[in-house]
């Protein structure tokens, strides 16, 4: 009986840590990127490539900071997918390819939504 109580306590502590990480880091950052990437899409539509490039530099630096924390809590494949998508987006922006930049931007937004859904504390994700 004692081991059951200890195991249950450990499980509850781990769930509390998971919930804390989700609501203090994953949820706010995924919302931030969804909003900011929507604004970036508007700049791409307008053809303001200089602003798009400067914003991309800022987003990439912020992503590197976020990545350092998330690497311990989020599936590595999801992080790698975002890294690859960011690199593609930077390339399309550098080439001023409006259609491909918009497509990759939408893909990047979907990747952040996937992380938010996968890391949310739900019964499906626990069991």
Give me the secondary-structure topology.
Layout: H1 2-46, H2 49-70, H3 76-94, H4 98-119, H5 123-126
Helix pairs in contact: 1-2, 1-4, 2-3, 3-4
Task: Please name the defining characteristics of this protein.
single chain; 127 residues; mainly alpha; 5 helices; elongated
Structure, described:
The two termini are 22 Å apart. The protein has five helices and no strands. With 127 residues, the chain is an all-alpha fold. The protein has one domain (25-119): Oxygen-evolving enhancer protein 3 (PsbQ), four-helix up-down bundle (Four Helix Bundle (Hemerythrin (Met), subunit A), Up-down Bundle). The model has no long low-confidence stretch (mean pLDDT 88). Helix 1 runs antiparallel to helix 2 (49-70) and helix 2 (49-70) packs antiparallel against helix 3.
Instruction: Give the distance, in angstroms, between the N- and C-terminal Cα atoms.
Output: 22 Å
What's the Cα radius of gyration?
Answer: 18 Å
Helical content, roughly? over 70%
Please name the CATH topology. Four Helix Bundle (Hemerythrin (Met), subunit A)
The total of beta strands comes to: 0
- Count, helices: 5
CATH class: Mainly Alpha
The residue-averaged pLDDT reads 88
- CATH architecture identity: Up-down Bundle
Describe the global form: elongated
Count of structural domains = 1
Secondary-structure element order, as H and E?
A: HHHHH
Superfamily at the CATH H level?
Oxygen-evolving enhancer protein 3 (PsbQ), four-helix up-down bundle
SS content category? mainly alpha
Biggest sheet details = none
